[in-house]
Amino acid sequence: MATPDRTVALLVSPFVGPGGGHRLRGRVAERLRAGGCAVRHLWPRDVEDVAPRVRAAVAAGAEAVVVVGGDGTFHQALQAVAGTAVPLGLVPAGTGNDVARHLDLPRDDVDAAVDVVLRGRTSVLDAARAGDRWFMTVLAAGFDAVVNERANRMAWPRGHSRYTLATLAELRTFRPLPYVLELDGRTLRLDAMLVAVGNGPSFGGGLRICEGADLHDGLLDVVVIRPVSRAELVRTYPKLYRGTHTSHPQYEHHRVRRVTVAAPGVVGYADGERLGALPLTIECVPDAVKVFT
Asked: Does residue 120 contact residue 104 with C-beta atoms inside 8 Å?
C-alpha cells in the first residue's frame, strides 16, 4: 500500500468534460485519501498548462503524480517527470489509451487503476526523446501522422472508430512519400507509406504498428511500410490490431538507439500529440521514467 500521508499531485485532463471531469476527480481523490495519500489538486487551464503545473508540484515536494486522462495528458505530464525519481500514475480516461496498454493498466475500471497507485509497485522504463520533447508510445511520421492529424480534429466518434474513419478519409488522396532515414549513422533513402518510431508497440487505440517493441531494451523500433496500393493498405489495416502485419512483404523493421526521420511536408505526432515538422531526431533514453504498474 501507499505510504500514509504520501503527497500525490492529482491532475485531470482538461479534455474530460466538466461534469465527467469533476466526478472522476472526486472519485479518484477519495480513493487515494482512503488509501493514506494526501492529495494536492492541480488545475491546468489547458493542455499546454499541464507540464508547468506538474513541474511546479514536483518542485514543491509531491512524491508522486497521478493523471486522469489519455495518452496526450500523460505525454504532457511526462515532460515534467522524465529524468526524475518521481513516479507517474495513470487513470485511463482517453480515446486511444495506448500508454495504459503498454503499462497493462485497467482501462475500464477507475477504482482498479487507482489501486495500482496505492499498491506502490513501480517500474523504471525507457522513454523516447525528440529534441526537448519526450514520448512513450510511437512517433507517427507518414500516412499514420496524416490520419492522426485528421482524427484529432474530429469530435466524433470516440475510440477506434475515429481512427478508422480518419484512415478511410485520407486513403482517397494519399501517395507514398520520399524519406531519408539516419539509423545509428547509416543513411537509408526510400519511398514509403509511413515510417513509425516506437518506444512502445502501439498507437491510435491499439494499432500495433511497432509489434515487439520493448520498453526496457534501450532501443527504438523503426517500422517502414514501403509503397502499397490503397486497396492493399485497406486489406492490411486490420492486421495492425493483431500485430500480424509483420509478415507483409513491404514491411521493414530496424532497431536502433537513434534515428533521424526526414520527409517533405510531414508533421510528426507522438502519443497523439503534434511534435513538429520533419526532420526529427529521436533517441531512446534508458530508464528515463518511473511509473506505477
From this structure: no
The tally of CA atoms less than 13 A away on the side-chain side of residue 243 is 11
- Taking the C-alpha atoms of residue 102 and residue 116, their distance in angstroms, rounded to an integer, is 14
Q: Which three cell numbers stand for residue 87?
A: 513516479
Please check whether residue 96 is in contact with residue 69, taking contact to mean a CB–CB distance below 8 angstroms.
no
Residue type, 273: E
Angle at 144 between CA 124 and CA 265, to 5 degrees: 110
Query: Is this structure's pTM higher than 0.85?
Result: yes
Q: Are strands 280-292 and 258-262 parallel, antiparallel or unpaired?
A: antiparallel
DSSP helix/strand/coil, 197: strand
- State the greatest distance between any 2 C-alpha atoms of the chain, in Å, as a whole number: 59
Compute the distance between CA of residue 48 and CA of residue 130 in angstroms, rounded to an integer: 18
Residue 216, exposed/middle/buried by CB under 10 A (0-12, 13-18, 19+)?
A: exposed
Q: Which residues contact 125 (CB under 8 A, 6 or more apart)?
A: 136, 215, 216, 287, 288, 289, 290, 291
The set of cell numbers assigned to 192 is 514509403
Q: Digits of tens for pLDDT over the chain (293 positions)?
A: 444 568 999 999 887 655 567 789 999 999 999 999 999 999 998 889 999 999 999 999 999 999 999 999 999 999 999 999 999 999 999 888 999 999 999 999 999 999 999 999 999 999 999 999 999 999 999 887 877 777 777 777 766 677 778 877 877 777 899 999 999 999 999 999 989 999 999 988 898 999 999 999 999 999 999 999 988 987 888 899 999 999 999 999 999 999 999 999 899 999 989 999 999 999 999 999 999 99
Contact 87, 65 (CB under 8 A): yes
